[in-house]
Every structure is written in C-alpha cells, then in structure tokens.
Amino acid sequence: MNSKKTILLPKYKKIFEQIGENIKLARKRRKLTTEQVSERAGIHRATLYRIEKGDPAVSIGLYFNVFRVLNLQDDFLKLAVDDEFGRKLQDLDLL
After folding, report:
1. Which of 2, 27, 55, 74 is 20 to 30 A from 63, alpha carbon to alpha carbon?
2. CA atoms within 13 A of residue 90's CA, in its CB half-sphere
3. 12: closest CA among 41, 54, 52, 75?
4. Which of left, alpha, beta for 3 (phi over 0: left; psi -120 to 50: alpha)?
5. Nearest residue to 47 (alpha-carbon basis) of 36, 30, 67, 62
6. Signal sequence: where (predicted)?
7. CA angle 48, 52, 58 (to 5 degrees)
C-alpha cells in the first residue's frame, strides 16, 4: 500500500505543532519520561517524538492514546464541538 505524504498549509501545520507542544508540556508536568508514555500508549518512542513535534501524518488514534495516558482523553470530546459555521448554514436552510 502506498502512503501519501500529508500536505498542510503552514498556518495549519502550526496548529499541529502547538498540539504537539501542549502534549510535551503535559507529559513534563506529570514528570513522565518519553519511555513511560510511549510504553503506556503502546507506541514507539520515535512515534511519541513525532507526536510531540506535531506530525500530522501520525494517526489520530495514536494521538488519542497519548492523550489517554496523560488523562486528557476528555479533550478529544472538545474537537469540533462548537460548529458555529455549520449551525449558521443549518439556520439558513430553516429560513
């Protein structure tokens, strides 16, 4: 199977980089090593490094596993929860 390279515009790449930085800071606040987190998440340390760098090619499931290890799994429920644009489109259909 050929894997395609994930292409993001620089401003969107920055969002992933910020998520990665947030994960790294959360790990450090908990005084967990990369080895501990990667082992508990069931991933290689190299993959955790890629996540902490904000690599968009890493699957969202692996990001979730790291969030779970850091006890931040409820943050995933916040993704796309406030769909303001979608509600406006829906409201236009109601007119």
Report:
1. 2
2. 5
3. 54
4. beta
5. 62
6. none
7. 60
Q: How many other C-beta atoms can be found within 10 angstroms of the C-beta atom of residue 30?
A: 12
Which of these, 60, 88, 91, lies nearest to 19 by C-alpha position? 60
Residue pLDDT, tens place only, 3-19 = 677 788 999 999 999 99
User: CA 56 → CA 27, 76, 79, distances in Å?
Assistant: 19, 16, 16
pLDDT tens figures, 49-78: 999 999 999 999 999 999 999 999 999 889
Asked if the model's pLDDT at residue 48 lies above 70, the reply is yes
At how many degrees (to 10) do helices 10-29 and 60-69 cross?
20
For the chain, list the domains and their CATH numbers: 11-92 (1.10.260.40)
